[in-house]
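User: Teach me something about this protein's shape.
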Amino acid sequence: MQIVKTPLAGLLVIEPDCFDDERGFFLETYQRDRYQKMGISDEFVQDNQSHSIKGVLRGLHFQILRPQAQIVTVMSGRIFDVCVDLRLESSTFGKCYSVELCDDGPRQLYMAPGFAHGFCVLSDRVDLHYKCSRLFDPSDEAGLLWNDPDIGINWPVINPRISKRDNTFGRLKNLSTEQLPHNSIVEK
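Assistant: First, the predicted structure itself:
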């Protein structure tokens, strides 16, 4: 397993060991002891799966009072994945990082608590798996406008399919401290 650090502390690209042959491949998407040795010590308490079709854009979502660490794995398909650092004490506050994730040459994305997360679907369909360090609470969920010009994400889709809710999120510059993730520790 390889860990690739990104320019944002607490955001890692994981390249799990993948064993493939003419039949397909096998990989462990999570093994607590191995991930802890690589510096990912969160306790994961909930797994989620989402299914989306080409052109769908989801995000940018985060939890306010109980921010979650997440490990995102594409089970089938290909996405353009984006994280925005919303940790107030972070030197990279407001900065984003994007990476393509797919089921071919699998990679995962680990984000510490305090990031907004979103993705757009590049393949005909995609199935995503999320490991989360805290239980999802819909009353605690918030979001950031997917096309906030101050963040400047270069989404690789034209006219994405976006939910009404995701289209109504605010810009980062208009969010108060109380509307941003709380208790997020910045790792150096």
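Now, about its shape. The domain at 2-19+28-175 is CATH 2.60.120.10 (Jelly Rolls). The helical segments are 32-37, 164-167. If you'd like, I can walk through any region in more detail.
User: That's plenty for now, thanks!
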